[in-house]
Each structure stands twice: as C-alpha cells, then as structure tokens.
Amino acid sequence: MAESYMSNAMLKSSYDLPNLPPPNAFPEDPGSLAAKEVARLSILDGMRGIAAICVVFLHFYEPFQFGPQNWIPRGYLAVDFFFCLSGYVMAFAYDPFRVELSPTELIKRRLIRLHPLVVIGTLLGFVVVVIGRFYAPVAAALFNFSVTEFFILLTCSALLLPHLFHSDPSFPIFPLVAPAWSLLCEYVANLTFALFLRQLSLRWLLAMLAFAAVATAYTCYDFGSLNGGFDRRTFWIGFVRVGFSFIAGVVAYRIGRQPLLPRAAYYLPLILLASFFWPFLWKPYDFLIVTIVYPLLVWLGANAIGSPSINRFSEFIGDLSYPLYMTHYVLLMLLFGGTSAGWVAQNHAALAVPTMTLVAIAFSFLVKRYLDEPIRATLRRRSFEHLKG
Predict the structure, then answer these.
(1) Where are the alpha helices (DSSP H) in 257-372?
(2) What sign does the CA torsion over 326, 331, 332, 333 have?
C-alpha cells in the first residue's frame, strides 16, 4: 500500500490540475464540486444532461413498437458515458492526496447523494403500478403479484436489491423503477473505489482497464451490443459496462494534462450526441465508442471552458440529469398504459415522445426542488451533527 501511495505521489507531481480546491475543501457530493467550485467541469455537467435527455427520449419510444423507427437507436450508450464520467468525478472529488476521507464516510456521502431518488422513484412506481392494476389490463397482467409479494418487491427496490426470481428472464430486475439497475452497478463501483481502487497506482489501473476492455469486447461480440443489464437475462452485462467505463474515468483523471482545445465546449457535446444516432447493426460500434470515444470526451471535456451562459445552462441540465433519469420511468409506465388502452395512437410518436420528454424534465425539476434536495439537506445535517456529537 505504501508503494502504491508513493507511486501515485510521483504521478501527481508530473502534471498540473488547475483550479483545484485546497485539501479538505470538500463539499457533500462530487456534483456540487464539479458544477459550482470548478468551472472546468461545467461542460461535462452539460454533457451528462444531454445524455440523460437522450436516455429518456429512447425510453419514451418503447411504447410505440409499431410506430416509426426509434430516432436514437444507440441512446442506451448514455449509461456507459455516465459510468465513465462518474469514475472521473469520483477520482477528482475523492482524491486521497487532497481529501482525507475514510471509506465509510465516502460511502455515506454517496448514499446521501444517490439513494433518496432511488426511494422516491420506487415509491412513485409503486403508486402507479397499484393504481394501474385496477385500470390497465396490461399492468394487471405484468404485475400479477400477491399483496405480500408486492411489498417484498417494494422493500427490495427501495434497498436496491434486484428482483432475480421472476419466471420471465426479460422481466426488469427493478420493475418499479427500471433505471435503478445502473444505480446498483454504480454502487458496486463506488464501493470498490472507496475500498481500494482510489489507492491503486496508474499501472495497476491500466492493467485492470485492459482486462475490462477484453470483457467488453467479448460482450459486444457474443451479445451483439452493450444494451443489457436491466433484466435477469442480461444482468451480468451491467457489471461489464461499469467495469470498463468507471475505471476509464479514473484513469482519465490520473493521466491529466488535457489540452485546452478551442471551442471544445461546443463540439464535444455534439460528438457525444452524434454517438447515439448510429443506426446500423455493426458489432464493433459499441466497443469503439465506449472504449475510445467516451473516455476521450471525458478527458478533454474536463478542461473545456464555455461562455458564462453556456456554463450556467450546462450546470442546470447537469443538476437535472440524475432526477430526470430516476423519475422518468413512472411517466413511461403511464405512457405504456395510454398506448395499450388506445388513448395514444401508435402513429403519434413524433408528437408524444418530445412532449413526454418535456413533461419529464419539468417533473424531475419539481421532484429535485421539493423532495430530493430537502431530504438530502436533512440527511447531511444529521450526518454532520452525528460527527460533531
């Protein structure tokens, strides 16, 4: 371990990280550090917001299976970008050479940052499913559980425990809030980072990254894409995805030395957006995008500087990205009910999808403002009082 620290110390001295706060000048979560204290990460916040909107757009097309072709066929790759960005921000915000923090305290801060929306999304999904059982035959057939099974499902979902025992292998492992599968992967990555990953030298990280790249290549070849992790059949793919992308983000931070490219704040988000629109079935595509393009976008985006207005907008949509990701599923269930009941026609996708996306953005803002932020503030205050006590 001492050798690892010494190796890292030599590494840190070999590059400059401008605008870093002094040691222990550490906020309650990396998001606030990235968005408010270090302007050079504002563009990454904006790219995270763009990715979240694309995921929502992709999901809202699912009820229209007989309608027009999905406009964002590779939108699922946004999750891999999330993982890569998370690795970078975690390495940046919890750098042991600038922040003295125990693994227990690090995990506690991540739980305060992430878990309230897991519970909120679960409760919203539970309410919609219970109501839907009385008014939507599709919901009644899909969620054909007893009262006891329902409450077990609710408890497991709120605790982020996957439902792996349904007879249908394509049934979501988190049926009340399906996007939570990626949060489970994120939790595993955060725990791994807290326990030992952040202490490793760059050499060991690169070795792990090479191994993860082989696993990613095999998955793309065998499965055909990286579009998996959300059901029992593809559960293992989620850990392959986070395994490479999270470590790639940590490596991107450790390497440093990003060039300051002119107008990068404008074209890097466009490159990210374009990566979701590839319409052709080509197995190497996901591998190349995830292993090369996204790590480069995160690495270069960390030093991209936009105008004040661009930075403010980037921070705004970046702050909304996680609430949007975790709350849009309840609206998707309502949209599924509307299409199955015939209230929304299959050929109305061009109007319904953008409209529902705007509704989801507004809804996530309200959830963030009136539920998530107050809950997290209370938890942070109690955690601080506990430390003082």
Answers:
(1) 264-275, 284-288, 294-301, 308-340, 349-367
(2) positive
- Tens digits of pLDDT across the chain (389 residues): 433 333 333 333 333 333 333 333 333 443 343 333 343 489 999 999 999 999 999 999 988 876 556 788 999 999 999 999 999 999 999 998 888 889 999 999 999 999 999 999 999 999 988 887 766 555 555 667 777 888 888 999 999 999 887 778 888 999 999 999 999 999 999 999 999 999 999 999 999 999 999 999 999 999 999 999 999 999 999 999 999 999 999 999 999 877 888 899 999 999 999 999 998 888 899 999 999 999 999 999 998 988 999 999 999 999 999 999 999 999 999 898 888 777 888 888 889 999 999 999 999 999 999 999 999 999 999 887 666 55
Within 8 A by CB and 6+ apart from 230, the residues are: 172, 173, 174, 178, 179, 181, 238
**What token pair was written down for 216?**
């990613």
Q: Give Cα separations from 179 to 26, 52, 273, 356 (angstroms).
A: 29, 11, 20, 17
d(Cα 244, Cα 290) in Å, to the nearest integer?
8
261 sits in the region (left: phi over 0; alpha: psi -120 to 50; else beta) called beta
* pTM given for the model: 0.88
What does the block give as tokens for 197? 């990953």
319 is written with which tokens? Answer: 């702050």
**Distance in angstroms (rounded) separating the CA atoms of residues 64 and 58:** 11
